[in-house]
Model the fold of this input.
Amino acid sequence: MTENSLSQPENRNPENMESGSSGDSTGVGRKGIVAIVVAFVVGALISGLIIGGFAFLNAKTGRNTANAANGSTSAASDANDSCSTTLNVVASVNQWGSLAQELGGKCAQVTSLINSTSVEPHDYEPTPADLAKLSKADIVVINGAGYDGWAEKAQLDKSKQTIVNVGDLMGITATEEHEHEHEGNDNESGHHHHHGSTNPHLWFSPEAVLKAATAITDAYTAKAGEGTDTAATAQRHSNAWNADYAEFVAMVNKARAAGVKRSYVATESIISYLLDYLGATDKTPESYTNAMNSEGEPSAADLKSTLDLVSGSDVDLLVVNPQEMDGFAEKLNDAAKSSNKTILSATEQLPENQTTLLGWLTTIAKQALANDTTNGWFLTQDVADRSMADYEGEWQSVYPYLKDGSLKKVMEAKAKKGTMSAEEYTKYYDTGYKTDVERITIKGDRITFTRNGTDTTATYKYDGYKILDYKKGNRGVRYLFTAVGDVPDGAPKVVQFSDHGIAPGKAVHFHIFAGDSREETLKEMDNWPTYYPSSLSKDQIVEELLAH
Done:
């Protein structure tokens, strides 16, 4: 029994926290720099190739990821920034602006002229204030390739300003075919855009992002001066960023080595650079793509064949741009929903729930690869119904062990990997684990809840599952059960299980959500009492949590 996914306002996903990711699904999981380099090299050797041209050592700057300052990791702390010079940086769009900010830290004052997914980039007309900001900037970062022609045509002084044009870095310029049309009616988005043979969405190209990061860091060093503390700060941020990039490449190589292959249909080619990088296969019919690119309407036959592809078993993903959803894109989106197919939604501008460009690309890559079920990266069509038998047995709450200090070692281990102190993690899990039910016993379709030695039992029927989409990009699955018959006091009317699984299989532990209303219980994201088999000792549970 399948259901549409339900978006959640917060990423209070116990499965993330349990896996030691500190709830931040956009990160890759920090490791030591040496470990990152080893993972990268091993992944590359296993897969037989290194995807993209990542250079650990930049001959010009002596940039060496393996020697990142003091073993710094992703998003080098701005608190350590020392700036003799603060550089004024203006980016045409926030995709590149976020990268410039991450690389400059406190030493860069970055303004992105287009800074929201609510702004239609193809309709954008710069204001006099925008043009003034461009003219006064020390460093200007533009996409190029015809995407932000208004910025390319601005009155810039190349003798005084440094212009980072990503299209130029990639050797890609706008073609004569590049044009924007903005006419439409009430039933169409009115924002169709045709890029001809040029795909200007360069921020989705890992190669272009790498080249842009190098160029921006070089610009910071040149403007601030070699040997200055501003240049040193930029270098430190660059080292941290390069470590992240190495992990990103290693993740992709690992997926390739494991034989992960994806095929997709796209309503437009917005993330084709990234999908090509992942080794995905574009199954979108050429005739459909050509019709959309030429601002025409696909024929009835072309539309039907594309709809059939989306609904069929040969395609894993439908890629949509929510900023460009015309009637045909909506039809494909509906077909994907009705066939329970994975929909990958990618905006053009950096969305509000993402802070860095590489973090965003990593999230989209994980969504497309969908090969890490434990941490919430899976295909919609792989989710299957389950029965109460998967949870049968006698289970003990871990909450008493948190309260008596037995989980102190677990919280300390999380603090070493995550973003909070051991005390903060303890407080977080006190909210998450909290329950007065010390034991749950499940047999057949009956669940017994034990409080202070008193048992309360009710009968439950399976009521399908719900896929929850979290703000940070990953997902979870709740398996739903509803009480039937007389429900005694102390027994919830609704229980929902989450245990990392998305298909039939015996649970080794679970998080349980309970309440009187199915929809209200689905909204619960802060309290997720967690249970392990009663046969496990306290020390064994600690070992399980440390390994989890």
About this structure: The longest strand covers residues 454-469. The longest helix spans residues 229-257. The CA atoms of residues 38 and 250 lie 9 Å apart. The radius of gyration is 26 Å.
